[in-house]
Specification:
- By secondary structure, the protein is mainly α.
- The chain has one domain: DNA polymerase, domain 1, CATH 1.10.150.
- Helix 1 packs parallel to helix 3.
- The radius of gyration is 12 Å and the shape is globular.
């Protein structure tokens, strides 16, 4: 595996575990953490950007279908939810 991908996954896993609230930590670990190995490098980069662009509360609401998915991240979010 590419060193860049390994580092990116470590950064994302850390981010998933320390989001700021227990609820989002649990949801992220349940819905996203175990699916990182199925994502491409481009999808990992997009996921990393998602956490930079959107607040944890908004991501939580998107993943629980309380908020509409942003077009830029729609395919990625669908892939995460559907797997």
């Amino acid at each position: 595996m590419n060193e860049e991908i390994i580092i990116l996954k470590k950064i994302i896993r850390y981010r998933l575990s320390y989001s700021g609230t227990k609820e989002t930590d649990i949801l992220y670990n349940k819905m996203i953490s175990n699916k990182l190995d199925n994502l491409t490098k481009e999808e990992l980069l997009l996921l990393s950007n998602l956490f930079k662009d959107i607040s944890d509360i908004e991501i939580f609401n998107i993943l629980t279908n309380k908020l509409k998915k942003p077009p830029k991240y729609k395919d990625l979010i669908n892939k995460i939810i559907d797997e």
